[in-house]
Every structure is written in C-alpha cells, then in structure tokens.
Amino acid sequence: MTAIRLSSRAASHANHRFMTTPAPLPVSPSSATLHYGDGEFAVLRPGAYVTCAVSGVPIPLAALRYWSVERQEAYASPLEFMTAARDA
User: Fold this and answer.
1) pTM for the whole thing?
2) Residues 35, 56: Cα–Cα separation, whole Å
C-alpha cells in the first residue's frame, strides 16, 4: 500500500475545510455608541460609524483612529483633534 503525503499547504487547506467560521454580528447602519479608552474603545451600542465631534463627518469604526478619553469624543483626523484641544 502506498501512503499519500499532502504538502503542508494542502494539509492546511484540508483542515480548514471542516472548521466553521462564526457568523459576523449584525451591524446597524446607524451611529454606534462607544466608550473611548487608552488605545482602544468598547462598543456599547453596535453601529456602522461614529460622528466627528468637530466636523460632524461620519467615521466608519474600522477607520476610527483619533479620540479623546477625557471628553469621550471621536475625531475624523488629527486636525479635528487639535481643533478640539485648542478650543477646550
């Protein structure tokens, strides 16, 4: 009897075939509510975006990089962050 040897890539693919991927959580097309922490945020109410506190521009959660922990506000870019810091 001849043994069949799979390449590591083929073996990996064969194993993934039987794994299940959890369904993504439903995301509302409305605004999310977040709690902003140091270097991370927690989603309190799911949604697709948050609104910039300075410009009012919607910011998709995947693109959110700037916020204030003290003021619990999101900003679309460093410019809006600096404007808010100056005006505070």
Assistant:
1) 0.67
2) 18
Name the residue with tokens 């998709």: 60
CB 13 within 8 A of CB 29: no
- At 34-78, the pLDDT tens digits run 999 999 999 999 999 999 999 999 999 999 999 999 999 999 999
Other CB atoms within a 10 A radius of the CB of residue 75 amount to: 25
Residue appearing with tokens 């990089």: 65
* Class of residue 81 by CB neighbours under 10 A (exposed 0-12, middle 13-18, buried 19+): buried
Q: Is 50 exposed, middle or buried (0-12, 13-18, 19+ CB in 10 A)?
A: buried
DSSP state of 36: E
